[in-house]
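Before drawing any conclusions, I looked closely at one protein, both as residues and as discrete backbone shape codes, quoted below without any editing:
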Amino acid sequence: MTEAIRVLVVDDSPFVCRLLAAQLRESGVDVVGMAYDGQHAVAMVKELRPDAITLDLGMPGMGGLEVLDLVMRDCPTPVVVISGVSRKAASVTLQALDRGAVDFVLKYCPGADTDPDALRREIVSKVRLAAGVKVIRSLPNRLRSTLRPRIGGSSGGKPMPANLPGGVVVIGASTGGPLALRELLENLAADFSAALIVVQHMPATFTAVLAAQLDRQLSLAVKEAEDGDRLQPGLVLVAPGDYHLLARSDGTVEIATGPTIAGHCPSIDVTMQSVAQVFGPRAKGVILTGMGRDGALGLIAIRARGGQTFAQDAITCVVNGMPRHAIACGAVDHIGPPEEIARLLSKTVSIRFQEAHA
């Protein structure tokens, strides 16, 4: 019999603490304590050494971000943020992910179209997943290049729009994605000659905030994609939550409603398959950290048309689900940490750009 996961629940509402604790305990999780303010939370983490923490960010006094910073500094522990749904809550939650939180769950809102049982399963699933994550900060300083070729590509595919000789790079990510995305994108120059599309598994409110935060942090221009936006060199379009993003043959994007694909909307597979069809050998696909299998079929489509594919290495992933599955499917040409993938993208995109103008 496996030992139960030990979890600390942190929220300024005793009612919410009891509710979360009951949901976790019903699923076999050992709730070792409940903290109603930040100071007690930090002290209890040091004393109890839980396997994971659920953390409300909107606490009075010592707020959730300060708690997170102290925990990551003094006693690194996997954290799942319990987030609100507003743009302000999304902004703070993305800051928490940037500072080391593993994942987040949206709070239940009365009257919202949310299945309480599905929400409970999501909370339990993400807490269990987080408990297995080894929290290590300052990743870029401990990494060395581990990129290595896996499979050769083939030629083929439709001609690409003439105004994009550098091609299109699609980057897919899920759990742990915001930090990995920043680490990759900040290593691309502002004059990067390919267009970029980011498909990050996030709710609708969060993708706009993610795009705005990345735009402030990077030399590249970043925006949440809108229907009809044109793919442009050095511009990062972030697929909006609850919509699929597809490439059109005229070099613009379509934002389409549709069912979830393998539980995801936006779907990485949908975007990558669309870009592969339009851009052929000048499409590139990148799969970063995340749980599940989304992106593997998309990488296969890109490789089939002569494009190049990349996956984040296991040691730098928060969750090595999506990259591992893509690699197991034989869909990945190169494996490495985000900043090394960025360097190789810069090199290969530059070569393609020069070939197109030769």
Q: What stands out?
A: Confidence is low (pLDDT under 50) at residues 137-160. The CA atoms of residues 170 and 197 lie 5 Å apart. The chain has two domains: 6-131, 149-356. Residues 338-356 form the longest helix (19 residues).
